[in-house]
Specification:
By secondary structure, the chain is mainly beta. Helix content is 4%, strand content 43%. The protein has a 9-stranded antiparallel β-sheet, with no helix packed on it. Strands 5, 10, 11, 13, 14, 16, 19 and 20 form an 8-stranded antiparallel β-sheet that branches. Strand 1 and strand 2 form a beta hairpin.
Protein backbone atom coordinates (compact mmCIF):
# COMPACT_ATOMS: atom_id res chain seq x y z
CA UNK A 1 0.00 0.00 0.00
CA UNK A 2 1.41 3.37 -0.96
CA UNK A 3 -0.31 5.09 1.95
CA UNK A 4 1.59 5.64 5.16
CA UNK A 5 0.01 6.25 8.53
CA UNK A 6 -1.27 9.80 9.00
CA UNK A 7 0.15 9.61 12.53
CA UNK A 8 3.60 9.97 11.00
CA UNK A 9 2.72 13.62 10.39
CA UNK A 10 1.66 14.68 13.87
CA UNK A 11 -1.12 17.26 13.80
CA UNK A 12 -1.58 16.97 10.03
CA UNK A 13 -4.59 15.21 8.52
CA UNK A 14 -5.07 14.49 4.85
CA UNK A 15 -8.33 15.17 3.03
CA UNK A 16 -8.67 11.79 1.34
CA UNK A 17 -11.46 11.35 -1.21
CA UNK A 18 -14.86 10.47 0.22
CA UNK A 19 -16.15 7.05 -0.75
CA UNK A 20 -19.44 5.18 -0.57
CA UNK A 21 -17.63 1.86 -0.16
CA UNK A 22 -16.12 0.54 3.04
CA UNK A 23 -12.54 -0.55 2.44
CA UNK A 24 -9.62 -2.30 4.11
CA UNK A 25 -6.04 -1.80 2.91
CA UNK A 26 -3.14 -3.80 4.26
CA UNK A 27 -0.34 -1.28 4.75
CA UNK A 28 3.00 -0.52 6.31
CA UNK A 29 2.28 1.91 9.12
CA UNK A 30 4.39 3.94 11.56
CA UNK A 31 7.75 2.37 12.42
CA UNK A 32 7.53 0.23 9.27
CA UNK A 33 5.12 -2.04 11.15
CA UNK A 34 2.49 -4.03 9.22
CA UNK A 35 -1.18 -3.34 9.74
CA UNK A 36 -4.41 -2.29 8.10
CA UNK A 37 -6.08 0.98 7.26
CA UNK A 38 -9.87 0.86 7.52
CA UNK A 39 -12.38 3.25 5.97
CA UNK A 40 -16.12 3.23 6.48
CA UNK A 41 -18.70 4.09 3.86
CA UNK A 42 -19.21 7.43 5.64
CA UNK A 43 -15.50 8.36 5.53
CA UNK A 44 -14.34 7.45 9.04
CA UNK A 45 -10.86 5.90 9.19
CA UNK A 46 -8.83 3.71 11.52
CA UNK A 47 -5.38 2.17 11.67
CA UNK A 48 -4.85 -1.25 13.27
CA UNK A 49 -1.40 -2.76 13.83
CA UNK A 50 -0.50 -6.45 13.83
CA UNK A 51 1.74 -5.62 16.77
CA UNK A 52 -0.59 -6.10 19.72
CA UNK A 53 -3.64 -6.19 17.40
CA UNK A 54 -3.55 -2.54 18.34
CA UNK A 55 -6.13 0.01 17.19
CA UNK A 56 -3.98 3.14 17.05
CA UNK A 57 -6.42 5.63 15.56
CA UNK A 58 -10.05 6.33 14.77
CA UNK A 59 -10.98 9.55 13.01
CA UNK A 60 -14.30 10.90 11.83
CA UNK A 61 -15.02 11.89 8.24
CA UNK A 62 -13.55 15.37 8.89
CA UNK A 63 -10.25 13.89 10.08
CA UNK A 64 -10.82 14.70 13.75
CA UNK A 65 -9.27 12.26 16.23
CA UNK A 66 -11.69 10.34 18.44
CA UNK A 67 -9.11 7.94 19.82
CA UNK A 68 -5.93 9.43 21.28
CA UNK A 69 -2.38 8.47 20.29
CA UNK A 70 0.49 9.78 22.40
CA UNK A 71 2.73 12.40 20.83
CA UNK A 72 5.67 10.31 22.09
CA UNK A 73 4.35 6.84 21.20
CA UNK A 74 7.12 4.33 20.45
CA UNK A 75 6.69 1.90 17.54
CA UNK A 76 9.40 -0.60 18.45
CA UNK A 77 8.15 -4.09 19.38
CA UNK A 78 7.86 -5.63 21.85
CA UNK A 79 7.08 -2.31 23.55
CA UNK A 80 3.35 -1.60 23.63
CA UNK A 81 2.04 1.40 21.69
CA UNK A 82 0.93 4.24 23.98
CA UNK A 83 -2.63 5.27 23.18
CA UNK A 84 -5.32 3.80 20.97
CA UNK A 85 -6.86 0.58 22.32
CA UNK A 86 -4.24 -1.64 23.97
CA UNK A 87 -5.47 -5.17 24.75
CA UNK A 88 -4.85 -6.10 28.37
CA UNK A 89 -4.89 -9.91 28.26
CA UNK A 90 -4.62 -12.33 30.02
CA UNK A 91 -4.33 -9.88 32.88
CA UNK A 92 -5.38 -6.34 33.65
CA UNK A 93 -2.86 -4.41 35.76
CA UNK A 94 -1.59 -6.76 38.48
CA UNK A 95 -4.93 -8.54 38.92
CA UNK A 96 -3.67 -12.03 38.19
CA UNK A 97 -0.63 -14.29 38.45
CA UNK A 98 1.58 -12.67 35.79
CA UNK A 99 4.54 -10.54 36.78
CA UNK A 100 4.01 -8.46 33.64
CA UNK A 101 1.62 -5.52 34.04
CA UNK A 102 -1.41 -5.82 31.72
CA UNK A 103 -0.39 -9.24 30.40
CA UNK A 104 1.38 -9.93 27.11
CA UNK A 105 -1.18 -9.60 24.28
CA UNK A 106 -0.31 -5.96 23.59
CA UNK A 107 3.38 -6.89 23.17
CA UNK A 108 2.94 -9.83 20.77
CA UNK A 109 2.85 -9.99 16.98
CA UNK A 110 -0.62 -11.13 15.91
CA UNK A 111 -1.41 -12.80 12.58
CA UNK A 112 -3.93 -11.79 9.95
CA UNK A 113 -6.82 -14.27 10.00
CA UNK A 114 -8.19 -13.82 6.46
CA UNK A 115 -7.40 -11.32 3.72
CA UNK A 116 -10.08 -8.64 4.15
CA UNK A 117 -12.69 -8.09 1.46
CA UNK A 118 -13.73 -4.64 0.26
CA UNK A 119 -17.33 -3.58 -0.18
CA UNK A 120 -20.25 -2.14 1.71
CA UNK A 121 -20.94 -5.37 3.59
CA UNK A 122 -17.47 -6.84 4.08
CA UNK A 123 -15.03 -3.93 3.91
CA UNK A 124 -13.82 -1.69 6.70
CA UNK A 125 -12.85 -4.57 8.97
CA UNK A 126 -9.87 -6.70 9.97
CA UNK A 127 -9.27 -9.66 12.30
CA UNK A 128 -5.95 -10.60 13.90
CA UNK A 129 -5.15 -13.81 15.79
CA UNK A 130 -2.79 -14.73 18.61
CA UNK A 131 -2.08 -18.42 19.26
CA UNK A 132 -0.38 -19.67 22.40
CA UNK A 133 3.31 -20.48 22.00
CA UNK A 134 6.24 -21.57 24.10
CA UNK A 135 6.90 -17.89 24.80
CA UNK A 136 3.36 -17.14 26.01
CA UNK A 137 3.17 -20.38 28.01
CA UNK A 138 6.35 -19.40 29.83
CA UNK A 139 4.34 -16.44 31.14
CA UNK A 140 0.87 -18.05 31.35
CA UNK A 141 0.84 -21.86 31.02
CA UNK A 142 -2.29 -22.32 28.93
CA UNK A 143 -3.22 -23.21 25.33
CA UNK A 144 -5.49 -20.67 23.68
CA UNK A 145 -6.46 -18.91 20.47
CA UNK A 146 -7.45 -15.22 20.69
CA UNK A 147 -9.09 -13.32 17.83
CA UNK A 148 -9.39 -9.53 17.85
CA UNK A 149 -11.70 -7.92 15.29
CA UNK A 150 -12.05 -4.23 14.44
CA UNK A 151 -14.79 -2.94 12.17
CA UNK A 152 -15.99 0.48 11.07
CA UNK A 153 -19.75 0.51 10.57
CA UNK A 154 -20.73 3.93 9.32
CA UNK A 155 -19.81 6.34 12.10
CA UNK A 156 -19.33 3.59 14.70
CA UNK A 157 -16.29 1.56 15.68
CA UNK A 158 -16.87 -2.06 16.72
CA UNK A 159 -14.15 -4.07 18.47
CA UNK A 160 -14.36 -7.58 19.88
CA UNK A 161 -12.08 -10.14 21.49
CA UNK A 162 -12.80 -13.90 21.39
CA UNK A 163 -10.72 -16.30 23.48
CA UNK A 164 -10.88 -20.07 22.89
CA UNK A 165 -9.47 -22.67 25.26
CA UNK A 166 -7.61 -25.22 23.14
CA UNK A 167 -6.09 -27.01 26.10
CA UNK A 168 -7.25 -29.75 28.46
CA UNK A 169 -7.72 -27.68 31.61
CA UNK A 170 -9.92 -24.66 32.36
CA UNK A 171 -8.19 -21.32 32.67
CA UNK A 172 -9.10 -17.90 34.01
CA UNK A 173 -8.00 -14.36 33.23
CA UNK A 174 -8.79 -10.68 33.64
CA UNK A 175 -9.04 -8.43 30.60
CA UNK A 176 -9.60 -4.85 29.45
CA UNK A 177 -9.97 -2.85 26.26
CA UNK A 178 -7.77 0.03 27.46
CA UNK A 179 -9.30 2.76 25.26
CA UNK A 180 -7.75 6.25 25.19
CA UNK A 181 -10.26 8.92 24.12
CA UNK A 182 -9.23 12.30 22.72
CA UNK A 183 -10.70 15.31 24.53
CA UNK A 184 -10.25 18.99 23.80
CA UNK A 185 -9.58 19.95 27.43
CA UNK A 186 -9.38 17.42 30.29
CA UNK A 187 -10.63 20.08 32.70
CA UNK A 188 -13.87 20.32 30.74
CA UNK A 189 -14.32 16.59 30.13
CA UNK A 190 -16.40 14.18 32.23
CA UNK A 191 -17.56 10.55 32.19
CA UNK A 192 -21.25 9.84 32.78
CA UNK A 193 -23.06 6.63 33.70
CA UNK A 194 -21.16 5.68 36.87
CA UNK A 195 -23.23 7.34 39.59
CA UNK A 196 -23.89 4.86 42.40
CA UNK A 197 -21.24 2.41 41.16
CA UNK A 198 -18.70 0.88 43.53
CA UNK A 199 -15.04 1.28 42.65
CA UNK A 200 -11.55 0.50 43.87
CA UNK A 201 -9.49 3.66 44.21
CA UNK A 202 -6.00 2.76 42.97
CA UNK A 203 -4.68 6.05 44.38
CA UNK A 204 -5.85 5.06 47.86
CA UNK A 205 -4.62 1.48 48.22
CA UNK A 206 -7.56 0.17 46.16
CA UNK A 207 -9.91 1.12 48.95
CA UNK A 208 -13.53 0.33 48.03
CA UNK A 209 -15.66 3.45 47.54
CA UNK A 210 -18.99 4.45 45.97
CA UNK A 211 -19.27 7.21 43.37
CA UNK A 212 -22.13 9.53 44.34
CA UNK A 213 -21.41 12.17 41.69
CA UNK A 214 -23.42 12.77 38.54
CA UNK A 215 -20.23 12.45 36.49
CA UNK A 216 -16.53 11.74 36.93
CA UNK A 217 -14.62 15.02 36.62
CA UNK A 218 -10.87 15.49 36.29
CA UNK A 219 -9.15 17.95 38.61
CA UNK A 220 -6.13 15.75 39.28
CA UNK A 221 -5.00 12.17 38.74
CA UNK A 222 -7.84 9.63 38.52
CA UNK A 223 -7.33 5.85 38.61
CA UNK A 224 -10.48 3.91 39.50
CA UNK A 225 -11.63 0.34 38.84
CA UNK A 226 -15.44 0.50 38.73
CA UNK A 227 -17.25 -2.77 39.35
CA UNK A 228 -20.46 -4.08 37.80
CA UNK A 229 -21.26 -0.89 35.93
CA UNK A 230 -23.86 0.07 33.38
CA UNK A 231 -23.12 -1.27 29.91
CA UNK A 232 -23.45 2.23 28.42
CA UNK A 233 -21.02 4.96 29.51
CA UNK A 234 -20.54 8.38 27.96
CA UNK A 235 -17.49 10.61 27.60
CA UNK A 236 -18.56 14.28 27.52
CA UNK A 237 -15.99 16.23 25.51
CA UNK A 238 -17.28 19.75 26.10
CA UNK A 239 -14.42 21.57 24.35
CA UNK A 240 -15.04 19.64 21.12
CA UNK A 241 -18.85 19.84 21.41
CA UNK A 242 -19.34 16.09 21.32
CA UNK A 243 -20.07 13.00 23.35
CA UNK A 244 -18.52 9.57 22.84
CA UNK A 245 -20.84 6.72 23.77
CA UNK A 246 -19.27 3.44 24.91
CA UNK A 247 -21.55 0.39 24.72
CA UNK A 248 -19.75 -2.60 26.21
CA UNK A 249 -20.75 -6.27 26.02
CA UNK A 250 -19.72 -9.04 28.43
CA UNK A 251 -17.39 -6.63 30.20
CA UNK A 252 -19.05 -5.84 33.53
CA UNK A 253 -16.41 -3.45 34.86
CA UNK A 254 -14.86 -0.17 33.73
CA UNK A 255 -11.59 1.58 34.52
CA UNK A 256 -11.36 5.38 34.40
CA UNK A 257 -7.87 6.86 34.26
CA UNK A 258 -5.95 10.05 33.64
CA UNK A 259 -2.31 10.37 34.84
CA UNK A 260 -2.36 14.15 35.41
CA UNK A 261 0.80 16.26 35.53
CA UNK A 262 3.40 14.37 37.60
CA UNK A 263 2.78 10.87 36.27
CA UNK A 264 2.62 12.22 32.71
CA UNK A 265 6.06 13.80 33.18
CA UNK A 266 7.42 10.49 34.49
CA UNK A 267 6.01 8.42 31.61
CA UNK A 268 8.57 8.37 28.81
CA UNK A 269 6.14 7.65 25.97
CA UNK A 270 3.69 10.41 26.93
CA UNK A 271 4.28 14.02 25.98
CA UNK A 272 4.57 16.39 28.93
CA UNK A 273 1.20 17.98 28.19
CA UNK A 274 -0.59 14.92 26.84
CA UNK A 275 -2.62 14.45 30.02
CA UNK A 276 -4.69 17.48 28.95
CA UNK A 277 -5.74 15.74 25.74
CA UNK A 278 -7.10 12.35 26.77
CA UNK A 279 -8.90 10.21 29.28
CA UNK A 280 -9.28 6.44 29.43
CA UNK A 281 -12.52 4.54 29.82
CA UNK A 282 -11.53 0.89 29.79
CA UNK A 283 -14.26 -1.71 29.33
CA UNK A 284 -13.07 -4.58 31.50
CA UNK A 285 -13.66 -7.85 33.34
CA UNK A 286 -11.58 -7.54 36.51
CA UNK A 287 -13.69 -8.00 39.63
CA UNK A 288 -14.51 -11.63 38.76
CA UNK A 289 -11.98 -13.43 36.53
CA UNK A 290 -13.32 -14.94 33.31
CA UNK A 291 -13.26 -18.76 33.32
CA UNK A 292 -13.11 -20.66 30.01
CA UNK A 293 -13.40 -24.46 30.02
CA UNK A 294 -11.59 -26.75 27.56
CA UNK A 295 -13.10 -26.49 24.06
CA UNK A 296 -15.19 -23.44 24.99
CA UNK A 297 -14.84 -19.81 23.97
CA UNK A 298 -15.67 -16.42 25.43
CA UNK A 299 -16.34 -13.15 23.59
CA UNK A 300 -16.47 -9.54 24.69
CA UNK A 301 -16.62 -6.26 22.83
CA UNK A 302 -17.52 -2.62 22.66
CA UNK A 303 -19.22 -0.28 20.21
CA UNK A 304 -18.06 3.34 20.13
CA UNK A 305 -20.23 6.12 18.71
CA UNK A 306 -19.77 9.89 18.52
CA UNK A 307 -22.67 12.27 19.03
CA UNK A 308 -22.06 15.84 17.90
CA UNK A 309 -23.57 18.59 20.03
CA UNK A 310 -24.48 22.11 18.87
CA UNK A 311 -21.85 24.62 20.06
CA UNK A 312 -22.99 26.70 23.03
Amino acid sequence: CALRSASRFRGVHFALPRTTMATTRLCTLEGDLPGARLRSATGCTSEVYRHGAHVASWRDADGEDIIFLSSEAVFKPPKAIRGGIPLCFPQFSDLGPLAQQHGFARNEQWQLVDPPANGDENGGNVTFRLVSSDATKALWPHDFVADFAARLDGDEMHTSLTVRNTGREPFEFTVALHTYFTVGDIGKATVEGLRGASYLDSLDGRLAKVDENEAVAFEGEVDRIYQNTNDVLTVIDEKNDRSIVVHKTNLPDAVVWNPWVEKCLKTGDLGDGDYKKFLCVEAAATSTPVVVRPGAEWTCGQVLRVVKRPPK
